[in-house]
Amino acid sequence: MTASAKERTRQGKSRREHVSRGALAELHPKQRGFDPTDVLRASTEGRVPQLLPVKYSRMKESPFAFFRGAVSIMAADLGRLVNSGLQVQLCGDAHLQNLGSFATPDGKLVFDLNDFDETIRGPWEWDVKRMATSIILAGQECGHNRPGCRDAAATFVESYCRAIAAFSEFPILQVARYQIHREKRIQPIQAALRQSERARPLGLLSRFTEKDSRGGRRFRDLRPGFWRIRGAKAQEILGSLRAYRKNLAPERRHLFDLFHAVDVGFKVVGTGSVGLRDYVVLFEGNGAQDPMFLQIKQEVASAYANVLPGPHPHQSQQHQGRRAAEGQRAIQPISDLLLGWTTIGHHHYLVRQLNDHKGSVDLQRLRGRGLSSLALVAGELLARGHARSGDACEIRGYCGSGSRMAKALRDFACAYADQTEADYGAFIAAIKSARIKVDK
After folding, report:
1. Domain residue limits at 246
2. Do 36 and 149 reside in the same domain of the chain?
3. Using CA atoms, how far apart are residues 436 and 42, in angstroms rounded to an integer?
4. Which of 83, 210, 237, 366 could connect to 371 by a Cys-Cys bridge, CB 3.0–4.6 Å?
5. What pLDDT is attached to residue 324?
6. Ramachandran bin of 287, using left for φ above 0, alpha for ψ from -120 to 50, beta for the remaining angles
């Protein structure tokens, strides 16, 4: 029999007897039993070796860029520290530039988390710690001083705790479909939404394709970031869509069947994802002016798979594309209409639409009040995802009023930002000594 909300809140509060809230601030850097550069290199297993210098080149741009590409290092640190024991579906790579806008199945534009490559079940505070650290690093990159960044990180955690408290009192189904609407008044989010309004498949058509000799469309060669795939490899990729189609709900399968495949390309994407195989398929629906692009993105095991508390014997054996798709659905009330997964050879893939009405956060928009305003929304978004996939009552019981938790996780974020800057320095030294090769 399920415990009542009050009982679950008390159970969450009792977790403080095992791990105090103040203990979540502790980093213990001297207890690190690993070399961060070794962890980073070990995390590249299964990636295309020729693309790793591109990944490292993007990571060397700044400490925040390094942080975005080094989730494996933070996962190793979080795995060695104490945790609350209260589990949710983690975004896994919660940072400010993994927030963005996109179109819902009914065509409305929303702002939400938009990358779930690392999603997995784990302690709720791991997401909060990573997002809070990103606020410090991104804030410094766009010109905020350290006190301002500290305040924004505290604002984020306070927002998370307030939202969790509110969700713990909502009807459960209301939490499941809850949408955050006040984000349109916040300048960095307004910019992302405007970008979404402009990001249409016809724009991708002109950017990535050209007419062939028969008047049809084919992908252009835009190396080093994009190129066309032909021959047997293209046929193998298209063949994988049969398995993907079976994973779609019947009504979505019908929509997919109305399109036909035209061409296949390869795209180098992101910072953390560089090196993973990432294919793009151009489809046409009602003629050439009705394009649709599917991204078929390789997924490997979450960086957290081997550091989770307790026994998790099957994490590396599960289908990684399915893990990412189902994790996203657990966290978000709405997701891509054509989200699914497939397999090509020995590799697992997530399938989704590419850039249909998608917009991203511009760091330069975080100047002034932009950072703290975005921090408020980030707290609500993470809390909503955790309330959907975990127990808001237990988390609320553990967090309490939120003031002590805000201080603890703010202090952790500051310490981890310092640790990231030190790791970044070691990374740059490894590049200079040729231990790590970058694209020139």
Report:
1. 222-353
2. yes
3. 12
4. 366
5. 96
6. left
